[in-house]
Every structure is written in structure tokens, then in C-alpha cells.
Write a structure and sequence with these properties.
It is elongated and about 85 Å long. With 155 residues, the chain is an all-alpha fold. The chain starts with a helix and ends in an 8-residue tail after the last helix.
């Protein structure tokens, strides 16, 4: 009978430890949502920068198609991200203004890039995008330091 009580107590202990670990993981993941919302915005801009650096390798029709695909991805991300910044008022107050400002700046510069007809116009729009991308990467690094909690189970 004593062994049965020990086995039951052990199973209950394992269950409690597992439950606590799952709660810990959930809290870490919840806390990382705002950062991932911020980070998602730059993925299509990085594609545009990479595309521009290899633009000479594409025909005009292929180039327009690829830019159209990037535009669809950017539009989707532009319209659907940022919700994660509403998880806590403190996070919203600290990051939403800069995020929204960068989102609008990226959209305007990306539109200039899409509408550019000459090589010089594309270069100018590319330089603007690259500058905004660099500034936003600096902002992301600061946000990562603040929002991404270290996983104590890995230490």
C-alpha cells in the first residue's frame, strides 16, 4: 500500500511539474508576440532590397511579376500585423508609434519603388528603402533586448 501511495504521489508530482513547465512556455511565447509583430514588417522590405541588388538578372516582365508578388506580401503584412502590440498597454505606448510610422514610411517608399520608371528613380527609392530598413533594424534590436525574455531552462 505504501508503494502505491509513492507511485501515485510521483505521478502527481510529474504532472504538476509538466503543467508548470507548459505554463512557463506559454508565458514566454505570449511575451514574444509583440516582437514578432514588429519583426514581420521587414520581411518584404528585405526581399525588395535583395531583389534590387539582383534586378539586372531578370527580364522586364519577370521583374514586374516578382515585384507584384512582393507587393501582395507587403500589403498583406501591412494590413494584418501590429495586433501583437496591443497585448499590453505599456508595450503599445512604447512601440506602436514607431512601428506605425515605419509601416507608413515603408509603404510610401515601396510605392515609389513600384512606380519608378527610370533607373535613377528606382535607385533613389531603393536608397530610401535601405535607409528606412537600417533605421528599423536598429529599432528592432532595441525592442528585441526589451521584449525577448531569456528562457531560463536554457541557461
Amino acid at each position: 500500500m505504501k508503494k502505491l501511495k509513492l507511485v501515485i504521489a510521483g505521478i502527481i508530482g510529474i504532472y504538476i511539474i509538466t503543467f508548470m513547465y507548459q505554463q512557463h512556455r506559454t508565458i514566454l511565447e505570449y511575451r514574444q508576440i509583440p516582437y514578432y509583430s514588429l519583426e514581420l514588417l521587414v520581411s518584404p522590405i528585405a526581399e525588395v532590397i535583395e531583389f534590387h541588388e539582383n534586378a539586372d538578372n531578370y527580364e522586364e516582365d519577370e521583374r514586374k511579376e516578382m515585384l507584384g508578388n512582393i507587393n501582395v506580401r507587403f500589403s498583406t503584412i501591412f494590413n494584418k500585423t501590429g495586433v501583437g502590440l496591443s497585448t499590453e498597454q505599456k508595450i503599445h505606448d512604447r512601440y506602436f508609434y514607431k512601428y506605425n510610422e515605419a509601416r507608413i514610411d515603408f509603404a510610401l517608399s515601396f510605392d515609389k519603388y513600384m512606380e519608378a520608371t527610370t533607373r535613377e528613380q528606382r535607385e533613389q527609392a531603393y536608397r530610401e528603402l535601405k535607409s528606412e530598413y537600417s533605421d528599423y533594424q536598429t529599432f528592432l534590436q532595441l525592442a528585441e533586448d526589451d521584449l525577448m525574455l531569456p528562457d531560463p531552462t536554457l541557461e
